[in-house]
Amino acid sequence: MPVLVITGTGTEVGKTVATAAVAAAALAAGRSVAVLKAAQTGVRPDEPGDAAEVARLAGTVRAEEVARYPEPLAPATAARRAGRAPVRPHEVAEAAAKLAAEHDLVLVEGAGGLLVRFDATGGTLADAAGLLAAPVLLVASAGLGTLNTTELTARELRNRGLDLVGVVIGSWPDAPDLASRCNLADLPDVSGAPLLGALPAGAGSLAPADFRTAAPTWLAPRLDGTWDAEAFRGRQAP
Fold first, then answer.
1. Which of 21, 50, 106, 149 has the smallest CB count inside 10 Å?
2. Which pLDDT band holds residue 238 (cuts at 50, 70, 90)?
3. Is 37 noted as a catalytic residue in this protein?
């Protein structure tokens, strides 16, 4: 798995922190890691973006962006409003392939959900994943409403012949409600893929050293971690 594409069921589901956890676990396993942000929006040229945040939390990773735009909008819209060239899926794929030649693992983080448009012709992260023939990790929210968005994303991946390696819950609440606890069993069913981790709420606010130590305990062995989905479900059973 030299390239892993990481997408979310939408915005604010914990995608960047989940990417950092995957990076930290891989580093702890002795692998070299690069993270590529396909399109960074909503930050000025002098501000750190999501790739830099992954590096801050995870440690020694190479952090790159294909493009960035100042307004917090979908990449195609942000590019148009900024009067700049949009990101093209082939550019994302080419940048990831170049990094893969120099690193054991390349994490390609999307912007928002799988089908957020990069350009006016409808290019998306899914297209970049297809060009790379790379597996996809889906970051989902824990609570009510997540089953619909998770299943829709999983169906789109299957329709495109892309491999959904698993689902990670981006923020597991300190006091989970009934829906969240039931979703631990339902998310694998609706996605057709295993649950590969659950990050505790507030994980991104930990000190980097503490984040790196804890990250493998939030992720399953498939992602270089020690997290056990069955045991977690048992503790949280409604």
1. 149
2. confident
3. yes
